[in-house]
DNA sequence: ATTGAATATTGGTATAGACAACTATATTGC
DNA sequence: GCAATATAGTTGTCTATACCAATATTCAAT
């Protein structure tokens, strides 16, 4: 179980070993772990070394400790990371729904000042503008307008756009999207949104504007989405530092 | 600087002391800290105790360490904390605005089924209900309804609520809020919200429902907030895994 | 001047032991 | 029976020490 001669630190070996027990279900949420001294004796390692392993797992929220009682497995194992950057397709799949798209418009436009600044390119530079209706279970969920510098992703076609853009960019072009920022606000649907999303006039909508970046920190895309408030809620995990 | 006879752990004293130096600007981003051995000798404490303080600050992203080189102050210590769980007061401060509150209502109510389930208590159990208007620069920003189990936080008074609830809970009761989840959706203001937030009828609003948890994974509070869409945008950082 | 080896300094891992603070259980005294 | 006390077991804090691994510096050989 623990190899003292391994170049891998002992505390790290123990960490992985405990994680394994949790993930395989041999340790269930709420279960008490053996005490630090028990681990120490069982593996012939110092209690401080055991503590280092446990402290790390506590920081990662796999375990929690109560002084005088013991160390226990966290109730809510590992929630999937929302606040993760996901494509619409991935997002809907995580919600157990089937995603599809309807391409409304696909063209190359010159960047206006605001867009050029957001994409970090020259004004009037060529930009793909992709306007799509996003559907879940064939019901309109969002209107999405994606802007990508045409110099960055060359040879984009409407065929590719109809399938998964992220898949093409990551698997074929080998560009790696690493993160971004997203601004969320509430609003009332405008005429175009009312029509395309098939909702009543004056319906509330959630507007999300995302900017995603590649490994080298260049801006990859700007996405403006309008989500139907009656069909979409946004959930995030919070951590207090 | 360090009081060995204080009931406050030495590593915690050192932690606060270093944080102070960073926040006061005496240690600037990129600066190297004294080495662990220097701290150890200067304060007459063990190197392992110094390490415990530094490890905590590294976990909180105040510092970073490089083996063989030293320990340094993080470049962007405050940038990272969106998707961080913040109180309204902290949130507004980060936006450069002054926060205040108006207490609308403070009472103890019996939990209905939904609330009892969310707070993980018995149905009809006593729950503090705190209704507050949150203002930024003295303009209404949000209507906030907070629900806390009365058995968990005893002796809450309207005086405490008028000041900072998080401060009281963390500093006086020594409860540690570690995280939570938040659901965001768009809607139209109802009559009460229109009146209290001083907005036109049919105005769009952003509704956020937060559940925060303590170290031992018990639910601490449920907060339902209604934010004026014209005054509030929500920004998060995204990471792709 | 440049290279290369030795030395010093830094953080990383690990040990052994001590006592404190807290919890649960068993025992004692009434 | 019940309450107070003792005891054992848990995590929390702290010390002192040792050696490893990575980096920086010093100094000698070329």
TrEMBL record, chains A, B:
Residues 8-76 form the HTH gntR-type domain. InterPro entries: Bact_HTH_transcr_reg, Chorismate_lyase_/UTRA_dom_sf, Tscrpt_reg_HTH_GntR, UTRA, WH-like_DNA-bd_sf, WH_DNA-bd_sf. Keywords: DNA-binding, Transcription, Transcription regulation. GO terms for biological process: negative regulation of DNA-templated transcription. GO terms for molecular function: DNA binding; DNA-binding transcription factor activity. It comes from the Bacteria. It holds the Pfam family GntR. The keyword Transcription regulation applies. Coiled coil: none annotated. The keyword Transcription regulation applies. This is GntR family transcriptional regulator. It comes from Mesobacillus subterraneus.
